[in-house]
Amino acid sequence: MQFNIPTLLTLFRVILIPFFVVVFYL
């Protein structure tokens, strides 16, 4: 399956930003 880079970056941010926010506030 081929992914274009913007889609991957968006997915990456959607997953990682909440994760880091939770880690930061814990």
Q: What would your notes on this structure say?
A:
By secondary structure, this protein is mostly helical. It has one domain (1-26). Helix content is 81%, strand content 0%. It is built from one helix and no strands. The protein has one helix spanning 5-25.
Identify the overall geometry.
rod-shaped
- DSSP E strands, number: 0
**Number of helical elements:** 1
Approximately how much beta-strand content do the residues carry? under 5%
Report on the biggest sheet: none
Distance between the termini: 36 Å
In the predicted model, the low-confidence regions spanning at least 5 consecutive residues are none
Gyration radius (Cα, Å) is: 11 Å
Structural class: mainly alpha
SSE order: H
Q: Output mean pLDDT.
A: 86
Number of domains: 1
Helix content: over 70%
Kindly list the characteristics that best describe this protein.
single chain; 26 residues; mainly alpha; 81% helix; rod-shaped
How is this structure best summarized?
The chain has 26 residues and is mainly alpha-helical. The protein contains 1 helix and no strands. It has one domain (1-26).
